[in-house]
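Q: Predict the assembly, please.
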Amino acid sequence: MSVLGANFRRDLDIRRYPMLIYVLAPLVALVLQAWLPRVLRNHVFFDLPLVVTVYFALGRRSPIQGTLMGAAMGLFEDALSHHAIGVNGVAKTVAGFLAASVGIRIDVENFNIRLVLIFLLSLLSSAIYVFIYSVLLGLDLQWSWFTELFKAVGNSLIAMVLFPLLDRLQIRD
Amino acid sequence: MESFFTRYRNLLVLLAILGAQIVGLAVQVRRTSAGHSTLDPQDAPSVRLIRLWANALVSPPERVIQSSTMDSGNLWQNYLDLRHVREQNTDLQKTIDRLRLEQAALLEDARQGQRLQALLGFQEKYIYTTVAAQAIGSSGSDQSRVFYLDKGSAEGLDRDMAVITADGIVGKIREVFPHSAQVLAINDQTSGAGVILLTTRIRGILRGNAAGQPQIIGILADQRIQPGEIVLTAGGDQVFPRGLPVGVVEKVVRDPERDSFIDVIVKSAAHLNRLDEVLVITSTQPRFSQQQQQDLATSEALKGTEAEAIKEQQKASQIMAERLPGLTDANLPPANPASAQPGANPPAPAPVPEQGTPKPLHPLHPDRFSPGSAPAIVPDASPKQKLEAPTNARPKPVRDHRTSARGGSATRPPQTKPARKP
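A: Predicted assembly structure:
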């Protein structure tokens, strides 16, 4: 009964969007992530694909969908770089799964909780990236925690603007 | 069993996707003989296919954004440019006149340098053809300093072609697609370019660090390297032609891993963070104009004629040396054995032209230390006789000392020619 109750509550809270949004939002995130660093002189203190992944994972509240979306976004990011394909994929797969899993249990309508969540998941994604690249693959990588911290803050700032914008696009009964 | 998959469906999907990606990562990384892990410099076909898909998805919107941004920006920029254009025209005309004079002088120097290098047999590379391209996007990650061009294999681009700007080198093409290309910038951690410091002539490898700054690694600590020194391409990496500007030395820091080595941080000449239009060097064959090629052919022909003349001279010298055995081998046995016996009169020497005989200069005021004034050695003479020997035992003058050498005599008769005034 408790399981049925949880599913019922989750089904009530699942957000739905037009199909165009499901296609356009990730694509725009990938394109802007690739194009904006040129405008901002290579200061990449944000990760738009991660922000979009976390947003849809929290809204859809489906770990499988969050996992698939995170994997797809991460693989596309890897494909645009010259690194091994799969490093970002694993990091964003885990982030998408955790965001959706947490979204079932907590109230994601609270704006502050979503900001804290995106901040923590950004740090986790960076940690997984560094772990896979340096430890699992044994490749030489120089990195700085300050950069990753700035990136997490940047993602939170972007989420402050992007989440309310995407909330307006959802289908309301 | 069904309930297990239903209950742990989410976790199983996660593990399956993670496992598939980790296996894919393991395939892309290989271990070198030194025990280090490294990525394959050339992607496998499956990996390349994924990159191609991602590029096909992202490049067209990037191209549209880039062109629309440039158009809207140009509209305002054109208005600004029209202001004060007359004064600028006058200034530019003066500059053009000055540059024309400089260009004429430089062109002459360049032609001379090219001819000389060709004659010396240098395999020098010259930039032959370039393709202008527009930077349209990046990787979106600060760990991967790559960017994309709006030209690809359809426009003649290929892997490992050098990408430059008017200021200096930018990077090399890492991957090429039909209508776009991925460029690995020189400030990436996995890049590598052979460079040389202009003043100290120290060579090294240029690569990027975590902060995105190009640095020269693997050089021994040297006090001569000072900030401001110019860095050029060395030309040994088969990518960048020799002598292209790279940047200037910004500072020198110690290598954190090796004590006796230093890292030279370089301020790149090209603005790597503000790249718009770049040039791709598509061919590095020697570039000479029609006139220069004719000059080179003429020089080569002249060089061949001179070489033949020198060979003829050497051949004539050898023939002459064979006819003059005293010059070739002084230890040869005498041609007539009788002449070698003691007491026998040596045969009259053959007349030899004097122009080839080295002779000591005669002193103006000869004394007993002067060459040729020393007394001949008399083996059985007493000390008194030895003292009187200069007046009594002076042999007959010989015309040429080579005859005595031929006869095997140890003594060398002095020459009695009068000293010539200079």
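Confidence is low (pLDDT under 50) at residues 335-356, 378-422 of chain B. Chain B touches chain A through 56 residues (CB under 8 Å).
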